[in-house]
Amino acid sequence: MRPNPSALVVDDNAINRNLLDGILRRIGWTAILCEGGEQALQTLREQTFDLVLLDLRMPGLSGIETCRRIRSELGLARLPVVAYTAHGMLEDRDRMLADGFNGMLIKPVSIADVKAVCAEFGPAPE
Amino acid sequence: MNALAETAVGTRMRSAWVVLRDAETRAALAAELSGNGWTVSQSLASVREALAHFHAGVPLPDLVVSGLYFEDNDGFDLMHELAAQPGPPAIYLLSHQQRAVIRAAVSLARERGLRVAGYADFPVSTWSIADELSDFSASLPEREKVAGAAALSPGELRRIIDSRRIRTFLQPKVRIDTAEVAGFEALMRAVDENGAVITPDRLIEPLAAAGMLADASLQVFEATVEFLRQCLMEGYPVSGSVNASLGLIADRAFCDELTAMVEAAGIDPSWVTVEITETEAMSDVATVTERTGRFRMRGFNLAIDDFGTAYSSFSQLSRLPFSELKIEKSFVTWVHNDAMRQAVVAACATLGTRLGLRVVAEGVESPLELAAVREAGCTDVQGFLVARPVPASRARAWLHSCQGVASAAFAAQPGGAAPQD
Predict the structure, then answer these.
(1) In this structure, what DSSP letter does residue B269 have?
(2) Which domain holds residue B199?
(3) Residues B134 and B169 in one domain
(4) Is some CB atom of chain B closer than 8 A to the CB atom of A93?
(5) Which of A9, A15, A87 to probe the B interface (max B CBs under 10 A)?
(6) Domain residues of chain A, as ranges?
(7) Do A108 and B178 touch (CB under 8 A)?
(8) Nearest to residue B381, comparing CAs of B364, B367, B404?
(9) How far is CA B15 from CA B10, B40, B375, in A?
(10) Averaged in consecutive runs of 10 residues, what is the pLDDT profile of chain A (126 residues)?
(11) What is the ipTM, given to two decimal places?
(12) What is the CATH number of the domain that holds B140?
C-alpha cells in the first residue's frame, strides 16, 4: 500500500499550523509543520513532499522569497507550492503564478478548499 | 353601520383595522381575519376616515391593512400619520397599483420606522392574506413593551459599558456549495440592570450619538476574538465578522487596539473580517482609504456590508480593498418571487465573484430564498434558515452539535449541498 501523501505546512502562526495539520489528517494526508522559511528550506533538503503550503506573510524569510529559493537553490522545479494568503483578488493570483507558485489557498480557509488544493496538486489517487 | 367595529377586544386577540375602498374585499378580509385570531376593530372605506379616528384618539390597533390609492388622502398619508404615533401599528399593503409602486410604498413604510407585515397585489385571495397574517401575529411583540421602552441616557449607556453589560450574539454564515460553517457575524446587544435584553434599535444609534460606540464595539470584538481562538484550537476553521463604521476604521487607536487583541489571542488576523456599513457620505476619502488599506495590510479581511444601499456603492467597492460583499436582507426577502430582486442579487453576485470576493446573501429565511440566491451565484448565506443569532457562550455548542457543517438547515432544499464525506 502506498503511504499517505505528505504536505509541508509553513506558517509562523501556531494555531494555523495545527489547524491545517488537523484538516490534512482528516483527509488522509500527513503533514510536517514549519514555523518559517529557513526551517522549511532545511526540511526540504532532508525529506521529499507531495505538496508545500506556504504562508506569504512571515517574519524573516517571506513566502515569496522562500518559494524562489525552493525553485532556484533547491532546484525543486516540479514540487507543487501553494501560496497560503489573505490576498484573494484575481489580479493577485496572476502575480502569484508569475512568482513561481502553482496555486493559491485563500485565507480564511475551509476544509473544502484544502481538499480541493490537495486533489489538484497532490498525487493522483490509486 | 359596521357590526364588526363593535366586536369586543379580547385579551389575547390582536386587533386590526382594514382600510380598503372596495366594500366586498373589505368585508371578506375582515371575516377571514376574524376567523384567524384577529379582532377587526375598524373597517373603513377611506384613509380620511382612518385619520379622523387617530385625531379623535381612538386606541390604535396592532395592525393596519390598507390600500394605497383612495379618492382623497392616500396610503402614503396614512403611513405618514401612523409613523408619527408612539408604538405605531404594523402595516400590510394591499393594492391594485403596479408592483414598483407597491415596493416603493413598502420601502417608505420601513424608512418611516413602520413594521411591514407584508404586501399583496390583486387579484389575491383573502384567505391567503389571513394565513400570512396569522404567522405575523405570532411574531408581534407585546405592544406595551414596545411603547414603554424609553430612550437610554448617556449616563445609562456609560454604566452598561463600564459594568460590561454589552453582550455578543453570533449568527453563523454558511458556504452554499458545501454547507460548511464559514464563520459567524458578531452582533451587539446589551442587558439592563435586571438582565432583560436591550434591543439593537435602542442601543447602537444612541451609543453612536453619545460617542461610545468604539468602547462598546471593543467589548464585542474581544468576545469574538476569544470565541474564534477557541474554535480554531478545536480544529474548526471559522472566521468572525465584526461591524464597524468607516469612522471607527479611520480611528487609528481603535485599529491598534483590535490588532493588539488579535495578537494577544495568537490568531491570524485573516480570521477576523470587519464589515463596513456606511450611513453617511465619506467626508475624508483619503483618510478612509489609508486606514482601510493599512487594516488589510495587517492581515484583516474587509467586507462591504449592505451593498447597494445608502453609501455602500460602486465607488467604495472600487476604491477600498474589500474581500467580501454582503447583500442586504431587503433584496433577499421574497427574492424567489420578485424579478427585480432576482436581478439585483444576480448582478451583485456576478460583480463580487468576478472580483474574486465572497458574496454573502443576508437574511435568508426559507428554502425558496436559498434556492434563489444559489441560482443567482451567491457563495454564502446567513439568516434564520441556518440559525438565529445566539449568545457567544452558546455558539460553540451549536458548532459542535452540527460538527461544523450545517447540512440540516439545507436538507429541506431539493438539490441541497452534498453531504461531506
Answers:
(1) G
(2) 150-410
(3) no
(4) yes
(5) A15
(6) 6-121
(7) no
(8) B364
(9) 9, 6, 40
(10) 91 96 95 97 97 93 94 95 79 82 91 95 79
(11) 0.91
(12) 3.40.50.2300
> Distance from A84 to chain B by nearest Cα, in Å?
11
E-strand stretches of B144-278: 166-175, 181-191, 197-198, 239-245, 272-277
Burial group, residue B94, by CB count within 10 angstroms (0-12, 13-18, 19+):
buried
Can you list the residues of chain B whose pLDDT is less than 50? 1-11, 143-148, 413-421
The domain boundary residue, chosen from B90, B112, B146: B146
Give the number of domains in chain B.
Answer: 2
Residue B142 shares a structural domain with residue B220? no
Q: How many Å lie between the alpha carbon of B268 and the closest alpha carbon of chain A?
A: 7
| The 3-state secondary structure of B182-217, one letter per residue | EEEEEEEEEECCCCCEECHHHCHHHHHHCCCHHHHH
Q: Do B249 and B110 fall within a single domain?
A: no
The pTM of the full predicted model, rounded to 2 decimals, is: 0.75
Q: Does B416 map to a domain? A: no
* CATH number of the domain within which B395 lies: 3.20.20.450
Length of chain B: 421
Topology classification of domain A6-121? Rossmann fold (3.40.50)
Q: How far is CA B65 from CA B69, B168, B299, in A?
A: 13, 36, 51
Does a cis peptide bond (omega within 30 degrees of 0) precede residue B123? yes
| Domain shared by B314 and B402, yes or no | yes
Spatial distance between the Cα atoms of A86 and A84, rounded to a whole number of angstroms: 7
Residue of A12, A87, A93, A111 to mutate when probing chain B, most B C-beta within 10 A = A111
Q: How far is CA B126 from the centre of its chain?
A: 28
Cell of B202: 435602542
CA atoms within a 13 Å half-sphere pointing along the CA-CB vector of B28: 11
Q: Which residue has the cell 462598546?
A: B216
Residue B419 lies in a domain: no
